[in-house]
Amino acid sequence: MLKRLKLIKRCLQAMAISEQWASYREDDVGKAQKVKEMILSDLWWDKVDYILEFTAPIYDMIRVADTDKPSLHPIYEMWDSMIEKVNVAIYRHEGLEDDEYNSFWSVVYDILIDRWTKNCTPLHCLAHILNPRYYSTEWLLENSKRIPPHRDHEISMKRSKCLDRFFEDVNELNVVKSEFAAFLEGRFPSPAVLTDGWVLQPLVWWQYHGSAFPTLQTLALKLLGQPCSSSFAERNWSTYKFIHSLKRNKMAPAHAEDLVYVHSNLRLLSRRNAEYINRDTKMWDIAGDSWNESDIHGGVGILENAALTLDELELEAMVIGNVSTSVTTSESEVRSETIDLDDDEVGV
Prior knowledge:
This protein has helices at residues 2-7, 9-17, 21-25, 29-39, 42-65, 75-94, 103-119, 122-129, 137-141, 153-166, 170-185, 192-199, 202-209, 214-223, 231-243, 253-271, 274-278, 293-297, 313-322, 331-336, 343-346.
């Protein structure tokens, strides 16, 4: 909301000083005067800038976590960096030194730490400690306070707790401990392996260099491919709620699940489209279930319309037909049609 107010700042100020503002004042003079004073006050806008400045790191981290992409492994480090950025923004605005006490920062810090304490799990720590990026020289030199994950006591304790839960067999647990020790000691066939930890994505790194630690590699590939939020699952339930609505309250659960499957996979297919990958702003991720027929005939790829609705049966038939799947255009036939999309092709 504050971002939006900042964007339309000039328009709001022009509104408050216009002659037509007097017609609004007649309804509630007190409120009108207060709003006008706030809009025209530089001090009030400075407060808005301050709030946006110290909340921006929090907002950015939440946006990264609120996806279905692999994001379990960077969350621990992102929390530390986010808290540090908020601290810098508040202390810079207050004009205080790092060692000085600030009551406002104390309140904000307690809130952030309390939230992180509730959300930090052993899985976060294990995924963090398996990320080769955090052992690279480039990452360690970015901040003098940084240390490798295995030297952090909290992370190490939660890592051990997680491994004990994963491997109940003592022999398997001992194998993993040996492989983990070898991984931390850097027993790699080439010195370039550590450099690749900074350059390559963690999943790619473990696929390419993890053969020396087979058991640990299997575990790393599972963890580093996990999202850190349940938001994508919540969206799946939202899709189900949209399908099994008051209009379709007699639909069998199996039919509803099939339609949710088709709907979700259409969105996944659209994300493989070059138009989606190359665009800077991917508005269809949050635009809702709507589509414009002109988009189809205007030269834009059909799969670009990711925000599809199951009410647009003709459009869905066209999309599914592009992936060699037979779907009819009547609603009753779509409900009863068995659609088998290849998992590898869709990316499930």
